[in-house]
Amino acid sequence: MLHVHSLLRWAIVLAGIWAVIRAIKGVSGKTPFTATDKKAGMFFMIFFDIQLVVGLLVFFFFSPLAQTGLQDMGAAMKNPVVRFFTVEHEVMAIIALALVHIGYSKVKKAATDAQKHKYALIFYGIVMLILIKQIPWPFYEALGKGWF
């Protein structure tokens, strides 16, 4: 399950990059909001939803670090790695998930194409910044978990 969770990160990152690039093109080029723009945001949101389910399974059933942290939160808060995988990663992922859904809803309800692109850029851009910070990249010395 951890490998599935790790692989899904790439689907989210790629869909997020696609959604942000589409939004940048729309804002800078003042282009119409197309079905492709909508699909970019929708795939970003869908991959995030799937990742939430897989992430919850990993957290509650398959992660020894999370189990260690849940057994003794005081000790977990003193250990940066355990704290990251028990608290920080999950909280920020839930915030990012909420922002993806809020952004998608705002885009859908916006009156003009310009507003749709603007909301997409703001919300999906913020989510991508959160993702960049919260993914345990291999180059994060203490947290690196490998590329896949």
TrEMBL record:
The chain crosses the membrane at residues 6-24, 44-62, 82-100, 121-140. This is Cytochrome B. It comes from the Bacteria. Keywords: Membrane, Transmembrane, Transmembrane helix.
